[in-house]
Amino acid sequence: MYSLQQEERKRIISDKVSAFTSKDFEDYCKDEGIQRIPITIGVPRANGQIERMHGTLIPVLAKLSIDYPAKWFKFVLDVQRIINCIVSRYTKFTPFELMTGVKM
């Protein structure tokens, strides 16, 4: 059986701010087997995909956590599962199908 959580936190795409370039963060990523992919700040082609995803993710998390805004992070996995089950109008597949080859 395949679990979506098996693939969590394997890759982090971030800009080059100090929070993501510190020695502690670098060590954490290495210990956890996380690949860090730094991008340049202010270059739309570098971070356009994530900005589009934020356009979806942030409003959904805001609505789900409306009663407890400080607990928004508790809904991230649920929203991830939902997004991974939505058929792309471009590929005609869900992200889950493309990752695993299994139709949902």
Q: Outline of this structure?
A:
The protein is mainly alpha-helical.
Describe this structure in words.
The protein is mostly helical. The chain has two domains: 11-39, no CATH class; 47-100, no CATH class. It has helices spanning 18-21, 23-32, 44-64, 76-84, 95-100; strands at 11-15, 35-39. Strands 1-2 form a two-stranded parallel sheet. The chain is globular and about 40 Å long. The two termini are 13 Å apart.
Give the averaged pLDDT, no decimals. 82
Q: Fraction of residues in helices?
A: 40-55%
Strand order of the largest sheet: 1-2
Strand count, sense and barrel status of the largest sheet are: 2 strands, parallel
The end-to-end span amounts to 13 Å
What string, H for helix and E for strand, traces the elements in order?
EHHEHHH
- Number of domain units: 2
Strand content: 5-15%
Features of this protein?
nucleic acid binding, RNaseH_sf, Integrase catalytic domain-containing protein, 104 residues, mainly alpha, globular, 2 domains, RNaseH-like_sf, single chain, 48% helix, two-stranded parallel sheet
